[in-house]
Amino acid sequence: MKRILYFGYFIVTTDYSLLVDRLKEVKKSASLPYRTILCDMIKSSFKYKASFGDYFLYEFYKKNDEQRNSYITTGRLYEFYTKMNDKKKREIFRNKAKFNATFGRFIRREFLFLHDCTVDKFCNWVRDKDWIIAKPNEGVAGRGIEKIDVKNYKNLNELYSYLKDNELDLIEDCIEQHADMNKMNPSSVNTIRIITVRIQESTDIIGAVLRIGVDSPIDNFSTGGIAAPVDIKNGVVCDHAISKKDSLVYEYHPRTRCAIKGFQIPYWNQTLEMIKEASEVIPEVKTVGWDVAITKTGPELVEGNDNWNKNVFQLSHGEGKQHLLDRYT
Fold first, then answer.
1. Each residue's pLDDT tens digit, 77-95
2. Where are the alpha helices (DSSP H) in the chain?
3. Distance from C-alpha of 107 to C-alpha of 175, rounded to nearest angstrom
4. Which residues 6+ apart lie within 8 Å of 89 measured at CB?
5. Measuring CA to CA, which residue among 169, 182, 170, 173 is closest to residue 150?
6. Are 309 and 78 in contact (CB under 8 A)?
7. What pLDDT shows up at residue 272?
8. 240, 247 Cβ separation under 8 angstroms
9. H-state helical runs in 61-106
């Protein structure tokens, strides 16, 4: 019954214009008829709980059953979240106001929420700032985030009205990242996604990925950034980066020409210590994907995701990671 429900969910949530494009690409590249691809896609949905997007993103049409079974799929990850994370407590991770209030000691930058401040308070806060980061209070995958040049507005009241009209409720100082991170890419803060699982009062770190922006103030993998796997033991990037959109491999950053493989993330031991400490704050939420920025004085928490993205984790490592989740089921 559950697999039928997943299949129905995939039917309802699929972007069919994108699906048609992927079908055409696979038909041409793999020399497979549409009927074969569609039947195989449906089979993967039932057998591996894979969404139609999973099927194409992980190139299941090229893989055998053992390889397909190694992947965390949409249905499998949903079941893992459901088992590991308390439904009531996960709201703290989905509401930025609650998250910042709860994890404030791991956040170095100044921030302000428009829903609980006056125009005068906002104007006083932003008056001496050249740039700010504005975010919706709820949202994922970097959607809706803007880096705003304060000088582009006639006055601060106009800026306040723009933020309110566009429901950009969280206003933050721009993070000044470490010089080494800036050397990799200065267009965005390049964050590390670190995935934790808390079990029996201890925290396991099961994966880390460096997310790097490209011509954008956002480093998110789903919005055009690139990502590379990080060796958990030492914080060194252990392979080249990959993009989600076209699966291109990057040995060097396309703009700065900084070498990606072998890049050492600063303050790595302090980063792991901070993440383990943060994972203890809400023990009822046992698996989290933490986003960390590295500043000149140490690591800083950007956000935590109770429904962390499986794609950047698996694609950057070039393999399925279901075996890591199987330890806890």
1. 999 999 999 999 999 999 8
2. 2-13, 16-30, 34-48, 52-57, 65-69, 74-84, 91-94, 96-102, 119-126, 156-165, 179-184, 268-279, 310-317, 322-326
3. 10
4. 282, 284, 285
5. 173
6. no
7. 98
8. no
9. 65-69, 74-84, 91-94, 96-102
